[in-house]
Amino acid sequence: MDRMQRIFKLHQILKAHRYPVPRAKLESALECSRASLTRILNEMRNYFDAPIEHDRDAGGYKYSHDAYELPGLWFTPSELLALSAAQKLLEDAQPGLLDSQLAPLKNRIDKLLAQEHLGSGQLAKRLRILRMAARQPDTHTFQTVAGATAQRLQLAMAYHGRERNAVTQRTVSPQRLVHYRDNWYLDAWCHERNALRSFALDRIREPRTLAVACLDLDDTQLDAHYTATYGIFAGPAKDTAILRFTPERARWVADETWHPEQHDTWLADGRFERTLPYADPRELLLDILKYGPDVEVIAPPELRKEIAQRLKSAAAQYDHPL
After folding, report:
1. Residue pair 171/154 in contact by the 8 Å Cβ criterion
2. Which end of the chain is more exposed for a tag (fewer CB within 10 A), N or C?
3. Rg of the chain taking only CA atoms, in angstroms
4. pLDDT digits over 150-167, tens only?
5. Beta-carbon count within 10 A of 172 CB
6. What is the phi/psi pair of residue 174, to 5°?
7. Where are the alpha helices (DSSP H) in the chain?
8. 50 and 44 in contact (C-beta within 8 Å)?
9. Exposed, middle or buried, 10 (CB in 10 Å: 0-12/13-18/19+)?
């Protein structure tokens, strides 16, 4: 245990005890001699202004008040590793985000990891995060949208919707940033539509933060709108899908959460049945189709018919030789 580790550990011990801690107990915890403990105590008093008092009757040491904290940035080895992992996850989720702001902290963490012999940057190198079908918003757009959301200010923007392939001008009150299936979305109150909407960040153009306070909606209202049905499409549930998976595919699907209100049942023959609410079938259709013959739509009839028709159309493309 090096000098800085001992200082940090001594601080933790004194913070955790209301009564004086005996010298012998401190020497044992810090794995040091009497002379070394004396040097550490003096250093904390002289350089860190630690309010350490010696109680002669108890033969121990304590802080004179509980509010004292060590100045600067202090982390345990496990906290440093967790921070390194979190930085890597954030970097991969949105490359370029907060690079300039986080660079000094990242450098400090790397140095501290090296001092602790935990390998500077090694954990980040050993983390492999695969992003599939990610649509990357530019850094300016992300930072502008994130800033307006955090500051609770309205946002003006041009939005290019894929469905109609048209650009519209919007003024919105940001409510939440959502990272869903490797892509970023903004849940917001749209003042043009006078309703809640979701906007893909990669389709937002020329965002501007306005000096106007947001219309704030409470979490209950947001959850009722955005989490009531399957997938990214919001709104009240309009129907309930019943899906039946083969025993082989069930070994994966049974461990997955598709919706907070899903209902799962194992059938006697080993097949697996999942029931879940949905409002718009578009995303659900694509997710069902990827399982091919390993899933059957039991209900509703409209969803079953649509899946059957799409499978027939897909198979028809292979009826003729190239």
Report:
1. yes
2. C
3. 29
4. 999 999 999 998 888 999
5. 28
6. -60, 135
7. 3-16, 23-30, 34-48, 77-93, 99-115, 122-126, 139-151, 219-226, 247-253, 281-289, 301-316
8. yes
9. buried
> Distances in Å between the alpha carbon of 45 and those of 7, 10, 39, 48, 237?
11, 12, 10, 6, 63
| Domain 3-63 class in CATH | mainly alpha
Tell me yes or no: is domain 139-226 CATH 2.40.50: no
Tokens 């695969």 — which residue? 130
Q: Tell me the pTM.
A: 0.67
Give dist(CA 274, CA 241) in Å, integer: 8
> How many helices (H) and strands (E) in the chain?
11, 12
pLDDT tens digits, residue range 218-244? 999 998 888 888 888 888 899 999 999
Q: Is it true that 3-63 and 139-226 share their CATH fold? A: no
**Domain regions of the chain by residue span:** 3-63, 77-126, 139-226, 239-316
- List residues bridging with 196 in a β-sheet: 189
What region does 20 belong to: left with phi over 0, alpha with psi -120 to 50, or beta?
beta
Nearest CA-CA partner of 144 in 79, 199, 81: 199
Nearest to 227 by CA among 201, 260, 188: 260
